[in-house]
Amino acid sequence: MTTIGASAFSNSTSLASVTIPDSVTSIGSWAFAGCRGLTSITIPNSVTSIGSNAFSYCIALTDVAISGSVTNIGQWAFAGCTGLTSVTIPSSVTSIGQWAFGFCTGLTSVTISNSLTSIEDYTFANCTALTNVTIPDSVTSIGSWAFASCTGLTGITIPNSVTSIGGGAFYGCTALTSVTIPDSVTSIGSWALASCTGLTGITIPKSVTSIGGWAFYGCTALTSVTIPDSVTSIGSYAFQQCAGLTNATIGNGVTTISHGLFSHCSSLETLSISASVMSIGFGLDPDSGEDSFQECLALQRIDIDAANSVYASIDGVAFNKSMTVLLRVPPGKQGSYTVPSNVAVINDWAFYQCAGLTKLIIPISVVSVGGLNFGSLHDEYGNPLPPISIPIVADTTALATNDAFVSAVASKIVAALPDNYGIATKSDLGTAVSNAISQTVSQVQAQPNSYNLFNAEQYSANYNNGVVTGTALVTSNPSSYNLYTSNSIMDLRMGDLMIQRQGTNAIVSFQPQTTIDLTQPFTNNGTPIIHNIPMPGNKGFLRINAKP
User: Alpha-carbon distance 140 to 482, whole Å?
Assistant: First the structure.
């Protein structure tokens, strides 16, 4: 007999021991698979090949002696041998198939042949009792998921011969606290060290050129990471859910920061981006539906190297290079924030989850406000969006032709947060007319010529017409009017933008700084400056002050 045929003794549950004669050179596939009573086996020196699944799920097998003649161990050969506690793979073995020792949950130690050049995919996956592994320096690659879910693994030695670490190679090794990646490694695969929740530090050598997607996903104990200049590619979500990560530095070789790279890194405070980065996944990821910095609620600074030709940052806020597009305010930004005066576009999601902002000032230069910035009073997680005030620069030419700006004010900001503005009620008008607000209807009736009574129609008409007709109108419906004394009109800062209701629309008017007579309709060199835009709700009047 030279061969034990395929499935020769498979599922012989009463079989307790086997003596294989010296004449046998190969053990066929499934030869002893499922022999649940088999406790030990000695493989003679004549055997050169152990077939796939040859001893799989021999759950009582506690000891196996692999002879020095064996050169090949097939896939799943000893998979599911839960009683097996240790194994020595002799130097004669040059190849081990996928899952060869997978699900050997009792395996605590393994000695790997120094003739192996690669550890195949899933070779030791789910060996939950395995605590330490030394990989010989003959190995050049560690396959995908090779040690995945080895939850007892506390240490791993990777030799300088290894050039690649496959996807998921150490996925879910939750007891692993540190890994030394040698200078020989050039690539770290997707999910390679994902969900290693005990991993506190990682040094990525300068030899590495690529890091796969989700490579360090869910490494919640990882506190800092530095990507060396040698790395040119980092996959999507590589550091997502690293909740303990406080700072990250991206080297000067990376050209693209993909969506979600650091999303859900709830402790991340500072992100430093190099000059080499040409593309950053700002805004919504169409695949995951997430923002690149979603749930990075501690992030206070996105610092971009001044030599970057595509992006720029000021005070930790990200812009395009020309500073005309505001791309992202870090979610951890606190207090008041003023958008720079040359910004024309606010990107989608630029202020998403910025719950710490107490005030936002947007200049007249802004002509477009992206979605999911001020879409509701609270975001989808219940975080309140910040109050907003809009200072208007006294630039009559810009405003007279800038319908896009007026539209942005009305549809994006006023509609979202109407209660943050002084809108047509006596209690919420601005401080510039506070004295007039206190005046009662009876005082108006007694001294009608002392007040200027404005409604949507009267405001664009002659000033005196409002005085003549005003008393009866304000008496019949006082809450619909804003009462200005002559002094309070003069107190209004020159350069105010006025928005008034007219049916379902509003009239937007601008008072130039060069005009002294505030009792006349707002004009630009005699021509009324009027824009018709939608006005939400049933509010009657909106005033937005210019800054001095």
Answer: 80
